[in-house]
Amino acid sequence: MSISRRTARTVRILGVASASTALALGVAGNALACNIRDFSAVASCDNGKGSITVTDTDASGKEATVTVYLESNGADEKKVGTETVKGTREGATVTFAEDWAPKAQYRIHIDVPGLVNEDVSPTLTTSAEGCAKETPAPSGTPTPSATPTPSETPSDSDSATPSAEESSSTAPAAVTDNAPSAAAGESNLAETGADSNTPMIAGIAGALVVVGGGAVFFGMRRRGASKAN
Length: 229
Known about the structure:
Radius of gyration: 63 Å
Largest sheet: 5 strands, antiparallel
CATH topology of one domain: Immunoglobulin-like
CATH superfamily of one domain: Immunoglobulins
Helix content: 40-55%
Distance between the termini: 226 Å
Low-confidence stretches: 23-31, 167-194
Shape: rod-shaped
Number of strands: 8
Structural class: alpha+beta
CATH architecture of one domain: Sandwich
């Protein structure tokens, strides 16, 4: 049975289309498959405390085991910890608490059964500054709350001031006590008439007495003369 040229051409077109579809599916499958490029790590600080965060952007959502090691001279010095994470297109994260030192190196190992079993490249290196920590105040330096304000701290001069004021205020009081005596004497003299006009009044009174005595004398003498006549 011979195949016509039209049939052969149709079969050839279908074959090319099938191959293209398979290739496209393969590329899409590889794109969705989990791989080491889906993982990244960063060292950060929060309130003076260090941490290492690993992000998984595997859109297929495969569960991955993440293990962090502190490196020293190209070898594992200690194991920081192991956590599992399921990736998302937006990125799922897992965080390890680690008080990391400046310029320290950490190896991040990823294990996804049947797909990934290798380290994140390159090795994570922390910053040169490190995490800033709060410096405690020296024990010999008083805090602002413990420092007394001027109004709360009485000085020697302040404590002595009331005594000085009291003494100065009592001194005029003693003078005031003596003042009424002198004033009373003056008022008594004014009431009894013992002032500067007393001699004049006494002189006038004496003159009147003399005049009166003379009048009586001349009157008695005149009466005697008239009786003799």
